[in-house]
Amino acid sequence: MQEMVKTRIKWILAFMIAGFPFLIFRFFEIQYILHEKYSDDAVRNLDRYKDVAPRRGAIYDRNGKLLVKTSAGYALTGNIEGLFLQIKEGDETREILNEESINSLVNLLMEHRENKKDKESEEDKENEKIAMIEEISEKALNIYRRVQESIETTLLPHKELAIKSPSKYALKKKDAKKDYYRRKYPIWDNISAQAAQAFFCNKSYFCPYQEDKNKEEKYKNQEEKDKKNFKDIYPGFHLEFTIKRNYLYPDLACHLIGRLGLVENFPEEIRDSLIKNKGYSVRDMIGLSGIERIFEDALRGKRGCKVQSREDKENSLYLEKSIDGENIYLSIDKDLQEFAEKSLDQTVEKYKSKEEKDKGAVGGAAVVLNIYTGEILVMASSPRYEIEKYSENYKDLKDDPYFPLVNRAISFYYPIPPGSVFKVPVAAYVLQNGIIDENRCFVCNKYMYERGRFACTHIHGKIDLVHAISGSCNIFFYHLGEMMGPERLEECAYLFGFGTKSGLGFGSEESPGFIPTPARSASQGEHWGDGKSRMFGIGQLINATPLQVARSMAMIANIGIMPKLCLVKKQNQGSGDDQILVAQKGIAKEAYVANEDWKWPISQKNWLLIKQGMARTTEGPEGTAKELRKKLKGVRIACKTGTSQVKGKADHSWFAGFFPLEEPLYAFAVLIEHGGYGATAAGPVAIDLINKIMQK
Amino acid sequence: MKFGYSKTQFSWKEAFHGMGGLIFILSILLTLIGLLFIYSASPKRGADNYMNRQASWFLVSIVAFLITVRFDYLILVKHSYAIYLVAILSLIATHFLGVYRGGAKSWLKLGPMLLQTSEIMKIAIIFLLAKVLSDETKKNGGIKELLYPVLLTGIPMGLIVIQPDLGSSIIFVPVAFAMIFVSGIRFKALAIVFLIMVNLAVVVYFYGLHEYQKKRVLMFMNQDSMTREEKRSSGYQLEQSKIAIGNGGLTGRGWGKGTQNVYGLLPERHTDFIFAVIGEEMGFVGIFLVLLLYLILFCSMLVTSYTTLAVPGQLIIIGVMALHLSQTIVNTAMTVGMAPITGLPLPFMSYGGSSLLFNFISIGMVVSVAGRKIL
Ligand SMILES: [Zn+2]
Prior knowledge:
The complex is a heterodimer.
Chain A: H1 2-33, H2 35-45, E1 47-52, E2 59-60, E3 66-78, H3 80-83, E4 84-89, E5 92-97, H4 99-111, H5 122-155, H6 159-164, H7 166-182, E6 185-191, H8 193-203, H9 213-216, H10 222-229, E7 237-247, H11 254-257, E8 260-262, H12 268-278, E9 285-287, H13 290-294, H14 296-300, E10 304-309, E11 316-320, E12 328-329, H15 334-350, E13 363-370, E14 376-382, H16 394-399, H17 423-432, E15 442-444, E16 461-463, H18 465-471, H19 474-495, H20 518-523, H21 530-537, H22 546-557, E17 561-562, H23 578-582, H24 587-592, E18 598-599, H25 604-619, E19 638-644, E20 652-659, E21 666-673, H26 682-695
Parallel strand pairs in A: 2-12
Antiparallel strand pairs in A: 1-10, 2-3, 3-6, 3-7, 4-5, 8-9, 10-11, 13-14, 13-21, 15-16, 17-18, 19-20, 20-21
Helix pairs in contact in A: 4-5, 5-7, 15-26, 17-19, 17-25, 18-25, 19-21
Chain B: E1 8-10, H1 12-17, H2 19-40, H3 50-70, H4 73-78, H5 80-97, E2 99-101, E3 104-110, E4 113-116, H6 117-133, H7 147-161, H8 166-170, H9 172-182, H10 187-208, H11 211-221, H12 228-233, H13 236-248, H14 259-262, H15 274-307, H16 311-335, H17 353-370, E5 372-374
Antiparallel strand pairs in B: 1-5, 2-3, 3-4
Zinc ion binds next to α19 of chain A.
């Protein structure tokens, strides 16, 4: 056998030596023959392609006041794994806050504060430090709570395991914990560049700034710093580079401005299509609602690309310059918007029911627009939320009984009828179509029939159209509704813009309202009788948003021409301000042309009649808002109160119209949901706003 | 020849006098070259780099070598069934208690140390095959007697494939093949074995391979018809490795100066692709010298085996040689696209403590055989 083995060993030796050149030749081929090709590839490999993110456009008000801007900066995030220490006590593990880590972080933040005062007493410093520590600890504990909740939620589907197989359940729990304990949550925004650099150098083993000699001198004690380098002195904290949207007024016009979200948070299909078809990247921000969504294409700008050599990082070549997003100049007036919002907040608070939550006022909205240009100057809604804290507070906001997430100016959580405000379009329609003339009178004895639901608020006696408008006589309009019938009522509502969206592009954020028809009634199993026509005639059954009401008022004021609405400031008359022109050019232009002007001319005579009726609302002795006249500061207005009834709850309070009476320029509508009588809740809000506008 | 050597005597002089010394010195030389380039390929330059860790494993390996040399290999061959059983049990234990590293459950935690149990199995199968194949009472060179050794090799292969560690499993084939070949099987039977092996490989490809592994094999088979996207995913490693080696040219970019290496463009550069780092930084000259060192190492093993008197000893050396030779060929050929990317390390050079330790234990076995006289 030994001989056989020896022969075979020779075979192997022969094979090996014979095979060796093949391998060697392959290397020779690549390293000598193909060397040039591969070294070219290697040089090309040194180029690193980097995306250059554009800056998202800022949002200004009509007077050029900055509302929202984008800023790049640093922020700190934290995870539970490092922020909390695990302390074993017998079988149980307690988790306590890592105070040491927070302390060292606060020391660093204090040292590199941006708004450091020159002379500051030690005491002040100490106080500020304590406040900072408290704030961060509070945030950490909040995160801890949220994380525990999330773990509970993840474990819910496995609850039965807890009884069946406790060890398996424990394993599941361990996995969930591991996952959530490592996730990073925001802790501290707006870290100064200095603080960020110091944090980075202290935290990480390898400091890119170390080579920079000048910066190095900042550290007095080199040895100490070296020691620090080997130990993480801020466990649990992480530095993130952020591009942040800054809201200069936290909750101003929050619904209108809208929220941003990360592309990566979209469902997979939408995300892929955004990336593929629209050139987004996963970490891009994208407008989710309001202005941010409507003007997304203008605001986002265009991503650029640069090439950087790995060998020489200073030198980079821009293949494609990034184009920053366009700035948007809204038609909104920041001061008026703020004023309207505050006024609404106060009024809603005032009419909230202290005893029964669901009986009093819950919210409100105000809209003011220019009747000629269609520019919306005010679009206020109450209550609101802080856009920046949306995701943080989402759960509370969603379950809030006052629905702060709803933009009440263009939408509603439950249908809201315009009530008596709708009598104005009805009056214009019947006059213009000759159904009645200004001399036609009806008799109001409080009830249309002996008793029953068709009632008026007063006994108006024999009353004509002008007085029926100012006195808001229901009986008069019951008769009109009956005379018009469902087809003409429907036509009237459509003519004045009810039942259709604003065309501003709010999409699902906006409600089109609702116009009742016999067919729609039938589909709900209800018969359309004269009763329904009468209710329609006084603005019940139909649902409308404050923007729709304001738009119908603008149409009346403009003698039958409904302006196309817009959210962006229109050409500045003669000012020639370049910045403002930005909003008109490019993509923004397409978006702001909402819809064509809508015409349904009203004769001068009829217009004056309606105006007279609306003026008498504050000026006539029968006027429903005559108490408000003295509040008006040197301006006459045309208006109409509305009190729309809700079963079992307080009425919705409406106040809408236009001003100045002599030469109308603005139309408005104010709604206080469940605010009660029109002239008492919504009226003062509108009057204050009108005074403010006229003072400007 | 009967299997009846009762006693052997070991002498250090004998061991290091001839080829044994050369084998040991070459192994150390290759390890040192490896350390040099592991340092060059370390992402962190500082106290805690890969080289320092590998260097401490190197010291442990030398100690393990010295211990292994003192073992009487014939006694180990005698008890090789027991060793085999222990190795099989440790593989089974790994299946249940093992730790995941790099996607495969092939590591067993022993105190502070992680042990790759397939390495133990490699040693065990070499001893067992040395025993079985040198048993002349059952020999006639025919196909039937092959069934038993093939079965013995197949069982651990199956256990390793399911970890899943295809590379470590496949390496048993050349080891067994070389030992069977040397033990004197007829060429006709050899051809049949070869056919069976090929068929087995096809079966493994279709049923035992994961998608990523299939992709690697496919990619290896048609490198030119790849789309750009495929190149970026599964062909990326190979492409970068080829660029690195080609970039080296005849004399290389210089130690620590290969751009593919320094800027981290070459994946797995301190482990599986350490040879590409050498190619980039030392050029064709470096590659040639390193391959020559390997060739001399394997030749001296063959010479040692040739001059050894006891057949089991001869077979052990052939087994060890086949193990290192096949890994070296597969690993180096892989860097230039002549073999699929399997994740097999380059013996002595690739970063990895467990692997280095067992490399030196196996070299210890070879030197032990070389240094023993049968009394
Ligand atoms: Zn009346």
